[in-house]
């Protein structure tokens, strides 16, 4: 186990190093100039040069790369070109919002997907199965922003049940509300993006669970369980679902990390101040350090989630010993 | 996925494609998928014909109906209405169908071919080539696709569908490659490969003649599923403003609707492209799921 | 049977591919294959523009202009690029034929000098069009030293005439900015420079109804500022906020010691007390400060603060304000309320920029400056310094910033200019009532959501897209304010490259551009066609008599005229009919 | 002696996409108390399906179309799933074929047996545990191994554990479905002996399913021979070995080396079993039979008692009578 973990950590570090190096190189060869976004009329040529120098863009690429790596090891992602704030503090602030939304969404869609997936696999061949599979497929392949807009249109604009995006109602927060009110307000804003997320994602878990469950139901120990005269519920939950969950656990950890990356579209639609939106905005502003930092953090999250999934798997499946 | 045990006996008379077609005929999913796909195929074909009716008005890029003021709803002349400068939305939708088809199918063809080849070679030869290729696949799989594409698009400074096509192809292959490799690993130990090896057939020939036909059904499955991914990712990119501005894809239509401020005002502009994106990717995925149930015997009814 | 289906689908794909190619075949034009006077066939060129996401209007303009130019056989395609890439291509690499860009935003249009002077042709210089005209250079540098307003105006008109005749660039349109506000909550919005969200408007509005103290003015903005440091930021949305804290202070809200009246271009004293006294012989200026102006913490704003600000910017070479301080040799505080500027050269920038420059509090910033000096890169440190609690002398104090959601400003009850009347524009006056208790800036990810929020009453005021005009016009609760943008789009040519080095060619293609089409179709009437480099909204400096190049003409007439000009200049075509 | 299990004219078929597959047809036999019955036949002849029919553990697309299964005098065919659950394991239990997969890999083996006991008897977990520990001793495993997971067991131990599990609820009737196929010969012998001893000791009836007639001959009192879904011959072990009547039985016997080691020529049965999607109209063995007559082609032979306790389904046999 120890050896395996060390091996995996080394692997993670190498992968991470390669990814950030590629990202670094990509930005250096790009045909655009970040200082373009700080140009104001009436800026002298000298001033423009000063700005370029400020960002260290006048150094040769190799030197920039060494400095970049050195800073990286010290946990310093540099400062944003756009705002000058340390990248790390921006990312942490945004990441928290993203994790709050995506993780809740993934857990919810996971639970719903698994529950339905389990049920329809048990009722193999029924109309309900076909219906849910097609429904799950449909939402799984629905274009995210479009669905988000439709939901906003119906539930926020027409029915006015939910706010039109954002994370909080500023008016309420200005007058120092109680913690309960704060939570209610946050929850109110969370519901619509959350529903969109869940509707979009439960399908993938549903299909995964169904397939995994169907495979498990073909196993001999299910027959044993039935022969033992166990109750249907016990067979379904204790024997079939427990084993069918094994591959889904891996999927869960990975999808948490990917939901963070995939938050780009939902966050844009719902004005959610998260990391996805930050990446889009930072890319449009050519804010290298911020994009690099955000990308590095996301990659790290993905890698760690994969790692966690492997560890979790080994705990859930007694057959696996590293 | 390592449980995909679909190996075909060499002695079977029907060709592989023929078999899949025979089975496909019985799958509701595949039938529904093909039906939807044919509708969009028809739209793609209709596109140039529609433009030829009156190129000055119906060209999706430069045609402007001067008699229209602002964005108007559906009418006889404009079945879906026009956008804010008087361009016909229907012709844009038709053009979008072409873009989606060409992009989706090209991406899936390239990436699946790449993935299958890499998977076969990595699985068959093993050793260093296997380790290197699979590490590369791992790294690509680690990187979240949409943010990566946004960054790359930003880097290129200017987008064209060809660049998007290339990037998508090179980010989509690892999934296929992994599964094909796992399949190849198990096939490699089978007697018929052993005997082929013993009889002195060259490695390339073994891969092409003996291994490839056996992994083809899985490759077919990924071929259809990748189309879905490609269409959705391209649409997402275009919607965020990183698409090919010189053409009119569905994501682009939505983006124009968004930047011009018509999202909540003009449902005739906002709903069709999103629905088309979703439906077309849905159809390909349906076919994919239908195929999966055929090629993966563990999902078959007993 | 099944195989047949497969073949059917394959054939449909093949057919659709074929049709795609057919659908892209260009239409036959009357004039094909333009041949330059040198005898070469014109090489294919690109008209660069921004992506639709960055600027939909610029993008569409390029598409249509390319279409029109094709009509006389110019092999042109419109190509959209990301802003950063476009800047690098046109400003840095100068590797382009023609591009769409925009300029403006300055009350005093000093870009007339730096956009077109030969001195700016070096790499990274502003004159990316590489326009060379010694006569123009002489005239424009003289213009910058003219202190007499009438003479300066005449000189500016002459400059504009040269540009309009030579066409190194073609001005297109400048849009009308639309802002809507909720008239059930607010009234008496004035349309001041910078739009209704400007500092002037906020200081002068009245709430509807009685309880004014509780009123929060809610403004929707699109981009969250990342930094509230006036030395580091260059973004207009951030400035909307900073202006209210610091009394204004940058090119988009030029208000500090003086401000410029838009109609006459004259200086109106603001923080300064009375006229600026300029000594022509010694090249010095004396400015007096009003007494009793206080910072938010209650300390007095004195001449020492102004001297400190200028010294600080000079010392740290802060890029944003460099040209404000470059012309200052030395600044002296004669007493607490009197300043003496020693200038290095005669330059109207002293009037138009230095006097409008931000003022920082010495007490607060001397600490930051001290910290900065110890750093490796002081300029970077000071311009990226995170100010948690920005403090100025403006009408509003910084109160709260919830990252990702809002910024809250509170009224500064001790503001010096409260109930202050000041002349604006050509004759009118503006009363700074300051009845707003708090300003809440809410951030939205898209203008769609912001517009809906305005409709729903979540915010009181924001810019609205043209698409929503009809809705808002019909809505009795909303009042729309239109104000002309002081920016204009233009096509810049690479004047160092054939055929755009030929003024006749540039003139001919100018005739092909139907600016009215852009106004009517792209902007649905909410724009004005521009004929001069300086947008017409800048009344004092803009020349109303610039040639219009066929306003109101049909495309047929335009083509005829363009062909005539080109034929005269020796251009021919491979085929014409 | 009472009959514990009596099957009459059992017919079962699978619905497949190509049409119904007649997996069992015309199966009738009786097992008396204390008896061990062996079921032999080629793979795919319906032995396991028969076992599953008795447990009523058929997959969704399988259906008993005709016939009765009397267990302890009650017909279990019309019983509901809920009623069946009570009979399973307590009345009829089963030793599964693939020991590798018959145990759930994520639970401890002991717990899986306890689970079976707890499902039927209302006893405390502690008592159940003690019972399992006794069972472990009975089948010859160290009771400490209860706390291990299936993958930590060796193949033989796993099979023993499965036997222990089958015995957990003191069943009246055990179906042993090829319990030793996956094991090596020595372990196989041990297990078979074990089963034999336990069966006699606990005085259960047993149905031993195997394709290996020698194993069955060793273990069972009676032998049933199946071919293509039909029970074709059923008799006492000795009677059958002395006097095999059905041509298939004869062929089957000669295709196995004799236990006594007499060197006889092995005669494999030529041809392949029929496609049950479309079985031959007459005798299902007809295409491979070397004693065919016209009647075999068109008429299905009845399953009749030819001698005392010797049943046969063959026109040849009937005509002899």
What does this structure look like?
The complex is a heterotetramer of chains A (322), B (302), C (577) and D (321). By secondary structure, chain A is mainly α. Chain A has 2 domains: 16-73, no CATH class; 95-316, MetI-like (MetI-like fold), CATH 1.10.3720.10. Helix content of chain A is 76%, strand content 0%. Chain A has helices at residues 2-29, 45-54, 61-73, 87-122, 127-140, 144-158, 170-174, 179-217, 220-227, 232-261, 263-270, 275-284, 288-316. In chain B, 72% of the residues lie in helices and 0% in strands. With 302 residues, chain B is mostly helical. Chain B has a single domain (88-299), classed as MetI-like (MetI-like fold, Orthogonal Bundle), CATH 1.10.3720.10. Chain D is of the alpha/beta class. In chain D, helix 5 packs across helix 6 and helix 6 packs parallel to helix 7. The interface between A and C is large, with 58 and 69 residues.
Quickly describe the structure.
Chain B is mostly helical and 302 residues long.
Describe the largest sheet of chain D.
8 strands, mixed
Mean pLDDT of chain C: 84
Total helices of chain D: the number is: 12
Count up the domains of chain D: 1
CATH class of the largest domain in chain C, named: Alpha Beta
Cα end-to-end separation of chain D: 27 Å
Keywords:
heterotetramer, B: 302 residues, mainly alpha, MetI-like fold, 11 helices, 72% helix, 0% strand, elongated, disordered N terminus, D: 321 residues, alpha/beta, Rossmann fold, 8-stranded mixed beta sheet, 4-stranded antiparallel beta sheet, 12 helices
């Amino acid at each position: 186990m120890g050896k395996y973990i060390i091996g995996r950590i080394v692997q993670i570090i190498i992968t991470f190093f390669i990814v950030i190096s590629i990202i670094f190189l990509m930005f250096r060869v790009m045909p655009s100039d970040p200082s373009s976004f700080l140009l104001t009329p009436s800026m002298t040529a000298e001033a423009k040069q000063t700005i370029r120098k400020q960002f260290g863009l006048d150094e040769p690429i190799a030197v920039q790369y060494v400095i970049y790596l050195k800073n990286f090891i010290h946990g310093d992602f540099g400062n944003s070109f756009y705002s000058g704030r340390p990248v790390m503090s921006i990312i942490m602030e945004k990441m928290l919002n993203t994790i709050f939304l995506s993780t809740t969404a993934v857990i919810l869609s996971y639970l719903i997907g698994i529950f339905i997936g389990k049920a329809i696999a048990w009722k193999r061949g029924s109309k309900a199965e076909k219906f849910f599979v097609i429904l799950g497929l449909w939402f799984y392949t629905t274009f995210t922003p479009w669905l988000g807009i439709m939901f906003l249109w119906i539930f926020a604009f027409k029915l006015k049940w939910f706010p039109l995006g954002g994370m909080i109602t500023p008016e309420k927060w200005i007058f120092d509300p109680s913690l309960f009110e704060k939570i209610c307000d946050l929850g109110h804003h969370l519901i619509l993006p959350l529903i969109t997320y869940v509707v979009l994602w439960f399908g993938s878990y549903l299909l995964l669970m169904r397939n995994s469950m169907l495979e498990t139901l073909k196993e001999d120990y299910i027959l044993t369980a039935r022969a033992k005269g166990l109750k249907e519920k016990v067979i379904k939950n204790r024997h079939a679902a427990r084993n069918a969950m094994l591959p889904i656990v891996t999927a869960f950890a990975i999808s948490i990390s990917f939901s963070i990356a995939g938050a780009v579209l939902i966050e844009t639609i719902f004005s959610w101040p998260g990391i996805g939106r930050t990446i889009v905005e930072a890319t449009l502003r050519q804010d290298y350090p911020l994009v690099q930092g955000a990308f590095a953090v996301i990659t790290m999250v993905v890698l760690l989630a994969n790692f966690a999934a492997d560890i979790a798997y080994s705990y859930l499946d007694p057959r696996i010993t590293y | 996925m390592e449980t995909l045990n679909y190996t075909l006996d060499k002695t079977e008379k029907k060709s592989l494609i023929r078999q899949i077609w025979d089975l496909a005929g019985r799958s509701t999913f595949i039938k529904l998928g093909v039906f939807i796909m044919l509708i969009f195929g028809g739209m793609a074909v209709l596109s140039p014909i529609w433009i030829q009716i009156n190129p000055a008005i119906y060209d999706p890029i430069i045609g402007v109906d001067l008699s229209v003021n602002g964005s108007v709803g559906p009418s006889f002349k404009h079945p879906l209405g026009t956008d804010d400068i008087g361009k016909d939305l229907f012709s844009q939708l038709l053009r979008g169908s072409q873009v989606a088809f060409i992009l989706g199918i090209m991406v899936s063809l390239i990436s699946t071919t790449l993935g299958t080849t890499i998977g076969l070679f990595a699985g068959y030869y093993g050793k260093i080539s296997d380790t290197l290729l699979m590490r590369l696949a791992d790294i690509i799989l680690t990187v979240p696709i949409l943010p990566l594409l946004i960054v790359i698009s930003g880097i290129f400074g200017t987008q064209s569908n060809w660049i998007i096509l290339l990037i998508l192809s090179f980010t989509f292959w690892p999934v296929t490659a992994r599964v094909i490799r796992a399949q190849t690993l198990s096939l490699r130990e089978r007697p018929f490969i052993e005997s082929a090896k013993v009889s002195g057939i060259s490695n390339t020939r073994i891969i092409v003649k003996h291994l490839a036909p056996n992994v083809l059904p899985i490759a077919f499955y990924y071929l259809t599923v990748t189309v879905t991914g490609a269409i959705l990712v391209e649409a997402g990119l275009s919607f965020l403003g990183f698409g090919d501005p010189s053409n009119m894809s569905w994501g682009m239509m939505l983006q124009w609707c968004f930047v011009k401020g018509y999202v909540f005002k003009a449902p005739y502009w906002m709903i069709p492209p999103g629905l088309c994106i979703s439906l077309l990717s849905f159809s390909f995925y349906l076919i994919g799921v239908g195929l999966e149930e055929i090629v993966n015997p563990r999902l078959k009814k007993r | 049977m099944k195989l047949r289906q497969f073949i059917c689908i394959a054939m449909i794909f093949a057919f659709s591919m074929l049709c795609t190619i057919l659908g892209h075949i260009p239409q036959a034009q009357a004039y094909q294959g333009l041949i330059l006077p040198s005898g070469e066939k014109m090489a294919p060129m690109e008209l660069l523009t921004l992506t639709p996401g960055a600027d939909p209007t610029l993008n569409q303009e390029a598409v249509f202009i390319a279409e029109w130019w094709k009509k006389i056989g110019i092999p042109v395609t419109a190509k959209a690029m990301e802003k950063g890439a476009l800047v690098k291509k046109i400003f840095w690499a100068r590797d382009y034929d023609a591009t769409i860009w925009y300029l403006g935003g300055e009350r005093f249009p000093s870009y007339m000098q730096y956009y077109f002077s030969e001195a700016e042709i070096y790499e990274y210089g502003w004159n990316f069009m590489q326009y060379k005209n010694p006569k123009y250079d002489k005239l424009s540098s003289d213009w910058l030293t003219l202190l007499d307003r009438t003479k300066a105006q005449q000189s500016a008109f002459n400059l504009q005439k040269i540009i309009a005749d030579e066409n190194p660039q073609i001005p297109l349109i400048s849009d009308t900015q639309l802002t809507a506000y909720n008239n059930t909550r607010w009234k008496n919005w004035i349309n001041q420079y910078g739009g209704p969200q400007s500092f002037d408007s906020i200081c002068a509005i009245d709430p509807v109804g009685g309880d004014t103290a509780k009123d929060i003015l809610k403004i929707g903005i699109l981009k969250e500022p990342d930094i509230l440091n006036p030395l580091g930021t260059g973004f207009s949305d951030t400035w909307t906020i900073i202006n209210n804290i610091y009394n204004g202070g940058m090119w988009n809200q030029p208000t500090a010691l003086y401000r410029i009246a838009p109609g006459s271009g004259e200086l109106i004293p603001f923080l300064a007390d009375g006229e600026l006294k300029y000594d022509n012989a010694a090249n010095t200026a004396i400015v007096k400060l009003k007494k009793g102006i206080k910072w938010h913490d209650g300390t007095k704003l004195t001449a020492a603060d102004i001297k400190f600000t200028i010294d600080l910017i000079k010392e740290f070479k802060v890029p944003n304000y460099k040209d404000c301080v470059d012309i200052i040799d030395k600044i002296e505080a004669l007493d607490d309320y009197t300043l003496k500027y020693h200038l290095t050269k005669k330059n109207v920038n002293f009037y138009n920029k230095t006097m409008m420059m931000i003022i920082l509090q010495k007490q607060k910033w001397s600490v930051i400056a001290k910290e900065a000096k110890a750093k490796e890169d002081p300029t970077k440190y000071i311009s990226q310094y995170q100010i948690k609690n920005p403090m100025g002398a403006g009408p509003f104090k910084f109160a709260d910033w919830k990252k990702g959601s809002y910024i809250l400003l509170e009224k500064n009850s001790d503001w010096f200019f409260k109930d202050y009347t000041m002349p604006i524009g050509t004759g009118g006056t503006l009363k700074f009532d300051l009845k707003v208790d708090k300003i809440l800036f809410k951030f939205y990810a898209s203008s769609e959501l912001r517009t809906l929020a305005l409709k729903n009453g979540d915010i009181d005021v924001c810019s609205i897209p043209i698409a929503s005009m009809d809705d808002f016009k019909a809505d009795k609760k909303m009042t729309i304010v239109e104000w002309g943008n002081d920016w204009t789009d233009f096509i810049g040519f690479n004047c160092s490259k054939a055929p755009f080095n030929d003024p006749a060619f540039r003139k001919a293609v100018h005739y092909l551009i139907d600016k009215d089409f852009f106004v009517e179709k792209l902007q649905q009437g909410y724009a004005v066609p521009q004929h001069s480099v300086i947008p017409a909204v800048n009344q004092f400096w803009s020349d109303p008599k610039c040639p219009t190049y066929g306003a109101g003409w049909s495309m047929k007439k335009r083509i005829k005229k363009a062909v005539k000009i080109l034929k005269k200049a020796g251009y021919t075509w491979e085929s014409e009919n | 002696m009472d009959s514990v299990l009596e099957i009459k004219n059992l017919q079962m078929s699978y619905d497949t996409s190509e049409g119904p597959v007649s997996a069992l047809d015309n199966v009738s036999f009786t097992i008396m108390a204390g008896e061990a019955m062996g079921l032999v036949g080629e793979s795919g002849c319906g032995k396991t399906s028969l076992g599953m029919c008795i447990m009523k553990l058929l997959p969704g697309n399988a259906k008993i179309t005709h016939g009765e299964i009397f267990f302890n005098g009650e017909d279990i065919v019309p019983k509901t799933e809920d009623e069946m659950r009570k009979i399973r394991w307590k009345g009829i239990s089963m030793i599964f074929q693939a020991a590798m997969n018959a145990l759930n890999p994520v639970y401890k083996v002991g717990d899986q047996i306890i689970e079976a006991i707890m499902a039927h008897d209302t006893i405390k977990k502690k008592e159940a545990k003690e019972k399992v520990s006794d069972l472990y001793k009975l089948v010859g495993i160290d009771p400490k191994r209860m706390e291990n997971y299936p993958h930590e067991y060796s193949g033989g131990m796993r099979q023993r554990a499965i036997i222990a599990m089958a015995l957990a609820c003191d069943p009246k009737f055990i179906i042993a479905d090829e319990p030793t196929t996956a094991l090596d010969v020595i372990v196989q012998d041990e297990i078979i002996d074990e089963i034999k001893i336990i069966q006699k000791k606990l005085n259960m009836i047993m149905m031993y399913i195997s394709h290996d007639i020698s194993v069955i001959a060793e273990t069972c009192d009676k032998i049933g021979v199946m071919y293509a879904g039909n029970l074709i011959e059923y008799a006492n072990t000795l009677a059958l070995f002395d006097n095999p009547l059905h041509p298939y039985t004869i062929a089957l016997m000669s295709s196995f080396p004799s236990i006594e080691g007499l060197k006889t020529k092995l005669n494999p049965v030529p041809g392949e079993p029929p496609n049950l999607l479309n079985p031959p109209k007459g005798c299902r063995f007809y295409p491979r039979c070397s004693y065919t007559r016209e009647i075999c082609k068109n008429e299905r032979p009845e399953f009749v008692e030819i001698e005392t306790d010797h049943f046969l389904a063959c026109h040849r046999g009937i005509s002899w009578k």
